[in-house]
Automatic annotation (TrEMBL):
<dbReference type="InterPro" id="IPR057379">
    <property type="entry name" value="PH_SPO71"/>
</dbReference>
<protein>
    <recommendedName>
        <fullName>PH domain-containing protein</fullName>
    </recommendedName>
</protein>
<dbReference type="InterPro" id="IPR001849">
    <property type="entry name" value="PH_domain"/>
</dbReference>
<feature type="compositionally biased region" description="Low complexity">
    <location>
        <begin position="163"/>
        <end position="184"/>
    </location>
</feature>
<feature type="region of interest" description="Disordered">
    <location>
        <begin position="131"/>
        <end position="185"/>
    </location>
</feature>
<dbReference type="InterPro" id="IPR039486">
    <property type="entry name" value="Mug56/Spo71_PH"/>
</dbReference>
<dbReference type="Pfam" id="PF15404">
    <property type="entry name" value="PH_4"/>
</dbReference>
<dbReference type="Pfam" id="PF23207">
    <property type="entry name" value="PH_SPO71"/>
</dbReference>
<feature type="domain" description="PH">
    <location>
        <begin position="274"/>
        <end position="400"/>
    </location>
</feature>
<feature type="domain" description="PH">
    <location>
        <begin position="532"/>
        <end position="714"/>
    </location>
</feature>
<dbReference type="GO" id="GO:1902657">
    <property type="term" value="P:protein localization to prospore membrane"/>
</dbReference>
<dbReference type="InterPro" id="IPR040345">
    <property type="entry name" value="Mug56/Spo71"/>
</dbReference>
<feature type="domain" description="PH">
    <location>
        <begin position="778"/>
        <end position="930"/>
    </location>
</feature>
<feature type="compositionally biased region" description="Polar residues">
    <location>
        <begin position="136"/>
        <end position="160"/>
    </location>
</feature>
Length: 946
């Protein structure tokens, strides 16, 4: 399902400063004539309208077969005329005629829905909104209407001096978003095979939950013979591509090189015969270790080299290379690969000890001359790169590609088995591509009972089936077909097999890639959709005086962000062209990606945040002086919450006659009373009160109605999410508090033991596809305990993960708004969780033998996870300078930090292991995206020993 359909609608409330609109106009759009009619009517607006003329034609009830060049011109002219006569069309023309309005203090315009023009949604076009391929419109304007205008993945940023109220001109964050695409050459039907039998197609078998096998139907599908057997007439005999990338030459050249965190252990025991992962590490004794350190790790044909910085400054320039700290032999007899942690995707190499002459003399480890083992644990920044390393190491250690690939379909309780034609050459990559496996699975699953009712109806409505590796309650989607150098990762499907080298092997599953839900079901069966978000300018009234301050309020995912007016990032009204150096748009029109970036900038620049679930009530102001506290009690409305919150205040004649602004105040005798009627108050659960004043009485009532609907919905959404989290917790282990039944006349049947092989639908909501597609400004949000450094007290924070950043607001029980306390730039950051993170804590704080105390939280969640299972830490560099548009830019190639550069550490604690795993996966997704924008510079930094 397209990400465009999963971004909630938004509305801008109230007028907008005229100088903000003037700043939105590009300097090259100024009319060249006195009237400006030629540029306005023939070039600017037509170029913008042409792209959506066909969509508007369908929106008005037109049929595809009736779409002609004449109809295209009629639609365009009609839209231009309607635009000129509209309120925003007049304001747009006025702004172009009077560039001096950038210094105006007037407020113009009215409320509007972002991305809407005459009822047509420009942000989420209909599936049939593209111009049909058979249409032969040859005019200059129609060519632009048919051209694809997808946002570029390459950022455009520059330093801009922002005028007051013009902060929306900030550039897009400097983050390259990888586009998840598939090549037709790797699909089920490849070029050159359309007119003859498709080669390299496997046999497909389906096994149900009882182990019964059924052969695929004896029909010809896509050129495959009736038996379903593939021939290998055109299969290459080479096997080099299975082991090495195409650019690697024989000899001792570099295969892979990366910066990564490494922790080195030494043991007197021989550990080569067992898998060394996190569970084994917890029970291992007498391990000598060195602290985490960042190394430049180089994979050659026969060994791995670990480089670090010299102790003496400048020695690297003198000797011509970095210091070689460790050498790990790559030998089947002397080296073993293990997947240490599936959550962090850290991998481990266990090898025989090597001599001092081949390892650093600075090491404190007791390298033995005979017996024992050395253990190297590697943490790579991005998951895809870690998979690549594990895959190449596994193949070099004679890891064999399986002849069959089993894929579980938990929704229909079925397993699909795909046979590879030949695992000794490159043909295995052509068979086991992501698109090919999905198409083969869907083709055979059509014969499974309940397929139509459970999956096919969802796919017909736009949902997509995606593949994922699942371990316990962790889901890792397969979504990257290209590596960080934009080269195909042919092993993207198979590299998850490396997880078999663990005490808990992962399982390959095919699931519906569901986005974050935009609706909630009440207990009475009612389905309630997410209300549109709201934003706009308001005056914040001080509770201790009548002082007012112009602020900008914006709601995102159940949170109310309060921004200063000069960093508001307001939306552009319909058809207002934004300058080229502004947020990335399509032909000047708002795009879905631009809206996500704009929302992220608002979160970064917010002065404070308020959780709408903490609002007890919203009322219209009835006192001249704003109160500081209230005595209202929160009522548990249950399913009637939406009806209660939707009740609005009655509109009086005085409200209807309010013109708004200073014009409305000038027509009344008692200005204070009118200002009070323009105000509304948020009553918080802490007992505090926040008062805001709107532009007019009508707008104040609109704010009250919209905020009430949002509060009611997000309270229900929070309850639903809490229930799903508890369902996952029960799937991992038995309940801490057994269920009690009112009637126990007969023997009570004990609860079934946890079964992790079940469907677990809550998994796709915890690991939803919006984190990958970038549908919302907030990738993930929630409350966590955080502390700076390895010592100190934990503080409760409200944390938001946005584009390449972690934004933290301190939660205080006495404050009205949670203030911003920290911004963490995820560029060059490492995330580490579990036992490896706990080992970094001081000895007096972490005791592995200490039992975990059961905990019960307000929403009903019960956990007894150990300390090491609920913490994760982030190692990051201080933000680089300068800061552009509020988001920290990536370091330049000549500003790559040294290996010995000191990193800052921040530690987080969650309520449960489930929350920790979900946070780690979401942060890893953002680190993955930032790595692909910068990692080339890191790879090439540092000179090696030739």
């Amino acid at each position: 399902m397209s990400a465009l359909h999963h971004q909630p609608r938004r509305s801008f409330f109230g007028p907008i400063p005229e100088k903000v609109l003037t700043h939105l106009q590009s300097s090259d759009l100024t009319p060249h004539s006195d009237t400006g009619e030629a540029d306005f009517g023939d070039t600017l607006i037509p170029n913008l309208i042409n792209r959506h003329a066909y969509s508007f034609f369908l929106h008005e009830g037109g049929n595809t077969e009736d779409w002609t060049e004449e109809e295209h011109q009629n639609i365009t002219q009609r839209l231009i005329h309607r635009w000129k006569e509209s309120e925003w069309g007049v304001i747009h023309d006025k702004c172009l005629r009077n560039p001096q309005n950038r210094y105006s203090t007037r407020w113009v315009g009215n409320s509007f829905e972002i991305g809407d023009l005459f009822g047509l949604d420009l942000l989420c076009p209909s599936p049939g909104g593209s111009v049909p391929a058979s249409d032969k419109i040859t005019s200059a304007t129609s060519i632009q209407a048919q051209a694809s205008q997808e946002p570029s993945s390459h950022p455009q940023s520059s330093n801009i001096e922002h005028a007051p109220f013009a902060s929306s001109s900030a550039p897009a964050p400097d983050v390259r978003r990888p586009v998840v695409s598939s090549s037709s050459t790797n699909g089920l039907l490849r070029p050159g095979f359309l007119s003859k039998a498709v080669k390299l197609m496997p046999d497909v078998r389906v096994a149900d939950s009882h182990g019964q096998e059924s052969v695929s139907p004896a029909t010809s599908v896509g050129g495959i013979d009736k038996a379903g057997t593939a021939t290998n007439d055109h299969v290459s005999d080479t096997s080099s591509a299975v082991l090495l990338p195409s650019q690697v030459e024989p000899g001792n050249n570099v295969v892979l090189r990366d910066r990564m965190l490494v922790r080195v252990y030494s043991s007197k025991s021989d550990l080569l015969d067992q898998v060394f992962d996190e569970s084994v590490h917890r029970t291992s004794q007498q391990l000598h270790y060195e602290a985490w350190a960042e190394y430049l790790v180089v994979l050659r044909n026969s060994r791995i080299e670990l480089y670090d910085d010299y102790d003496f400054p400048g020695k690297e320039r003198f000797v011509g290379h970095k210091h070689l700290a460790f050498v790990i032999p790559i030998s089947v007899a002397n080296t073993r690969l293990s997947l240490y942690s599936f959550v962090d995707l850290t991998f481990c190499l266990t090898c025989v000890p090597t001599s001092r002459s081949r390892n650093s003399l600075r090491s404190k480890l007791p390298f033995l001359s005979r017996g024992g083992s050395n253990i190297f644990i590697f943490k790579v920044k991005s998951r895809s790169r870690a998979y690549d390393w594990a895959w190449f190491l596994w193949r070099r250690l004679e890891g064999s590609v399986p002849s069959t690939l089993e894929i579980r379909v938990p929704r229909v309780d079925t397993t699909v088995t795909i046979d590879a034609p030949d695992t000794s050459n490159e043909s295995v990559f052509d068979t086991f591509t992501r698109d090919n496996v999905k198409k083969l699975s869907m083709r055979i699953l059509r014969s499974v009972p309940d397929w139509n009712s459970l999956i096919q109806q969802e796919t017909h409505s736009g949902a997509k089936l995606e593949l994922a590796w699942r371990s316990d309650t962790n889901l890792d989607w397969i979504w990257l077909d290209m590596d960080i150098h934009d080269k195909p990762r042919k092993w993207a499907m198979l590299c998850g097999i490396v997880s078999k080298q663990s005490s808990r092997p992962a399982i390959l599953e095919i699931r519906l890639a569901e986005h974050y839900p935009t609706h909630v079901h009440l207990k009475n069966g009612q389905r309630v959709h997410e209300p549109p978000g709201v934003e706009g300018y308001l005056q914040k009234i001080s509770p201790t005086s009548t002082m007012k301050r112009l602020m900008y309020l914006s709601t995102h995912d159940g949170y109310l962000f309060v921004l200063p007016s000069h960093h508001a990032y307001p939306p552009a009204p319909p058809w207002f062209v934004q300058p080229s150096e502004q947020l990335e748009t399509s032909n000047g029109l708002p795009s879905q990606q631009a809206e996500v970036q704009r929302g992220a900038l608002q979160i970064v620049h917010a002065l404070g945040v308020c959780d709408l679930r903490n609002v007890v009530a919203i009322r219209r102001a009835f006192q001249m002086m704003p109160p500081q506290t209230h005595s209202e009690q929160e009522v548990n409305e249950g399913d009637t919450a939406l009806n209660i919150w939707s009740q609005g205040d009655e509109v009086t004649e005085e409200d209807a006659n309010d013109l708004g602004g200073e014009d409305g105040l000038s027509q009344v005798t008692n200005r204070s009373v009118l200002r009070m009627r323009r105000s509304f108050e948020l009553l918080l659960r802490s007992g505090r009160v926040i008062r805001f004043e709107a532009y007019s009485c009508h707008l104040a009532l609109d704010w009250i109605q919209r905020l009430r609907a949002l509060i009611a919905y997000w309270k229900q959404r929070h309850r639903s999410d809490a229930r799903q989290e508890m369902d996952l917790a029960v799937a991992r282990r038995p309940r801490l508090t057994p269920l009690t039944r009112k009637c126990q006349e007969h023997a009570v049947t004990p609860e079934a033991p946890p079964d992790l092989s079940t469907f677990l639908p809550a998994l796709v909501n915890t690991y939803h596809w919006c984190m990958i597609a970038g549908c919302r400004p907030i990738v993930r949000g929630g409350k966590l305990f955080m502390r700076k450094g390895l010592r100190g007290t934990y503080k409760l924070v409200q944390m938001f993960l946005v584009t390449n950043h972690l934004i933290q607001y301190l939660i205080s029980p006495t404050s009205t708004l949670h203030p911003l306390v920290k911004k963490i730039n995820l560029t060059d950051a490492y995330i580490c969780s579990g036992y490896m993170a706990a080992l970094v804590l001081p000895e007096d704080e972490f005791n592995p033998s200490r039992p975990a105390a059961p905990r019960r939280y307000q929403d009903g969640l019960e956990t007894d996870d150990k300390e090491e299972d609920i913490i994760f830490m982030i190692r990051y560099y201080p933000p680089p300078k300068p800061i552009i548009g509020g988001l920290y830019t990536n370091n330049k190639a000549d500003q790559v930090p040294s290996l010995s550069a000191k990193r800052k550490v921040v530690i987080f604690r969650t309520r449960s292991k489930l929350e920790r795993d979900a946070w780690c996966w979401a942060i890893n997704c953002e680190i993955e995206k930032s790595v692909r924008a910068k990692e080339d510079a890191i790879h090439e930094s540092g000179t090696l020993i030739s």
